[in-house]
Write a structure and sequence with these properties.
InterPro entries: Beta_helix, Para_beta_helix_rpt-2, PbH1, Pectin_lyas_fold, Pectin_lyase_fold/virulence, SCF-Subunits/Alg-Epimerases
Oligomer: single chain
Radius of gyration: 22 Å
Protein name: Right handed beta helix domain-containing protein
Number of domains: 1
Pathway: Protein modification; protein ubiquitination
Number of strands: 32
CATH architecture: 3 Solenoid
Organism: Streptomyces inusitatus
Shape: globular
Keywords: Repeat, Ubl conjugation pathway
CATH topology: Pectate Lyase C-like
CATH class: Mainly Beta
Number of helices: 5
């Protein structure tokens, strides 16, 4: 390995200056230097380059289609494509995952992952999920104890046509998923599951043509979903509790400043629970704050709160959102045995609610133990979906700035969390960009 490393590019003064290398004394880099390992110049495959990398290194990938699955077990390395559309990790619909991040402090940037049977990018502290054991492709990891991977970054990644999730953070915390694009996720485009406290920020992403744009299951505690465009899926966003994952129940997420529109797109994979035409769904989730989102054009409902037979949805606050042109703007519907408590609305622009009059009868604040009213409405039937492999190919997406000149990215141990007061309601002008999925 030492001989193979001799030609690698030494990069000094990059990142945080915290000392490159791992102190192994191999003589392959001076103190404070970090190495750039180039694909295919220094290694013919991305996996081969990752195997050479040490903490603080950058794996920089030239344009090409790489038919492999990449597993990153070394902490604090950066995997970056030179071209977001040009660097493609292709699972050929036979590999479970495009990129698996199983070490802390890793950044995955500026590339495309597609055609994987499970996930485009999987970030996880679960050994069962890394190994792809039965049941671990989506949720259940059996009796495995919870181990949360700490710190990650996924930025400027295009994840398309994957059989479960485009970008999947499971049993992970202290991370950021940002400025990425997901489509063709047969379960959801972006998924965060099994973390508390999460300290995860999902921001400034575009998620369309998925079964669900964003899904958070048993994910809460400094969990922020902000400034995303969730348009033209079957369901825009869900936050929910599920017995198939640990750290039940879901609670304490902030959903703010998102555009959630036109989520009844036919040319998408079918949603597992048959969901269709819903902007935001809260199923058995509690203590969530839904703030200044623009929720429009969802033919079933803009926002639904519901629960299962044993998982209530309590103390959710829906404030200062704008609802328009939805079948029902806000609908609350509960099984008789699990009525929610303490859910309330304040300052929203809306037209219809089920039950009627929620804006006044459930105006915040309400007592935490007050029973949430429940009603029902006729939902439109969901049409048949299409295979995830047939979802429309994405158009060009923005490049990561400074791709060719920047060194490795330093991923902080704890990400900076958004200031809620600074998160604005999305402008109506952003709806113009949804014309493509409306017309499809």
């Amino acid at each position: 390995m030492t001989a193979a490393l001799g030609a690698l590019t030494l990069v000094t003064g990059c990142g945080d200056g915290g000392g490159g290398g791992d102190g192994s004394g191999e003589g392959r880099r001076p103190d404070g230097a970090r190495v750039t390992i180039r694909v295919p110049g220094d290694a013919p495959t991305i996996s081969g380059a990752v195997s050479l990398a040490r903490p603080g290194d950058l794996v920089l990938v030239a344009p090409g289609v790489y038919r492999e699955s990449v597993r990153i077990d070394t902490e604090r390395i950066t995997l970056r494509g030179e071209s977001r559309a040009g660097v493609v990790i292709d699972g050929q619909v036979r590999r479970p995952n495009g990129v698996v991040v199983a070490a802390p402090g890793v950044a995955v940037e500026n590339l495309t992952v597609r055609n994987n049977t499970h996930n485009g990018v999987l970030v996880t502290g679960s050994a069962a999920a890394v190994a792809g054991l039965p049941g671990s492709g989506g949720y259940d990891t059996g009796d495995e104890p919870v181990r949360l991977l700490k710190s990650f970054l996924v930025s400027h990644v295009t994840a398309t046509r994957n059989g479960l999730y485009g970008i999947y953070a499971f049993s992970a915390r202290n991370g950021v998923i940002e400025r990425s694009y997901t489509s063709g996720g047969a379960d959801s485009g972006i998924y965060v599951g099994q973390c508390r406290p999460c300290r995860i920020v999902v921001r400034d992403n575009v998620s369309e043509l998925n079964a669900v744009g964003y899904e958070g299951t048993n994910a809460g505690g400094d969990m922020y979903v902000v400034g995303n465009r969730l348009v033209g899926n079957r369901v825009g966003l869900t936050t929910n509790s599920d017995h198939q994952e640990k750290l039940l129940p879901q609670r304490d997420a902030v959903i703010a400043g998102n555009l959630i529109a036109d989520n009844q797109q036919r040319q998408t994979p079918e949603q597992a629970d048959g969901g269709w035409g819903i902007g935001i769904g809260i199923d058995g989730g509690s203590d969530n704050r839904i703030i200044r989102n623009r929720v429009t054009g969802n033919t079933n409902a803009g926002l639904v709160i519901t629960a299962t037979a044993d998982l209530t949805a309590d103390r959710n606050r829906i404030t200062d959102n704008t609802f328009d042109a939805n079948g029902v703007d806000i609908g609350w519907t509960f099984p008789t045995t699990t009525r929610g408590q303490g859910n309330c609305l304040e300052g929203n622009k809306l037209r219809t609610t089920v039950p009627a009059g929620l804006a006044s009868s459930a105006s915040c604040p309400v007592p935490a133990t007050s029973t949430t009213p429940s009603g029902s409405w006729r939902s439109p039937a969901a049409p048949a979906g299409i295979p995830f492999t047939d979802v429309a190919a994405p158009g060009p997406q923005p490049e990561l700035p400074g791709t060719g000149t920047a060194g490795a990215t330093v991923v902080p141990d704890t990400p900076a969390l958004p200031a809620i007061a600074d998160i604005a309601l999305p402008s109506p002008s952003l709806l113009a960009g949804s014309a493509r999925v409306r017309a499809s």
